[in-house]
Design a protein that fits this description.
It is a single chain. This protein is an all-beta fold and about 110 residues long. It has a domain at about 25-100: Jelly Rolls, CATH 2.60.120. It contains no helices and 10 strands. It has strands at about 15-20, 30, 40, 45-55, 55-60, 65, 70-75, 80-85, 90-95, 105. The relative contact order is 0.30.
């Protein structure tokens, strides 16, 4: 099966996401052109953020993490995290593995 997700320009900033809900993948992968300030954690999933463009500041378990091009942020299960700011040209890719539906709780 061939799956192609065409990118579209919109104002949500979340780009596209692909995972078990619309493909055979057991992980979720996507991109965003901004870091969202949405403090939360996951009980089972790891999240990997790869910065492709710009800069961002994240907060992971109350530790400030400054991210730039080429940086990879790994957020382990149980680690509270959010993005507090990002540059206008920011872009990251994100992978959630293993993808677990509903595995997000506010912190």
């Amino acid at each position: 099966m061939v799956t192609v997700i065409k990118s579209s320009i919109d104002t949500s900033g979340k780009g596209w996401f692909l995972g078990p809900w619309n493909s055979e993948l057991s992980i979720a992968v996507g991109f965003s052109d901004r870091g969202f300030d949405d403090p939360h954690c996951h009980d089972a999933m790891c999240e990997l953020y790869l910065v492709a463009r710009g800069t961002s500041t994240a907060l992971v378990d109350e530790q400030v993490v400054v991210l730039g091009v080429g940086d990879l942020l790994v957020v382990e299960p149980g680690e509270a995290h959010t993005f507090t700011s990002s540059s206008d040209d920011y872009l990251h890719f994100v992978v959630q593995a293993p993808f677990v539906p509903g595995d997000k709780r506010s912190t």
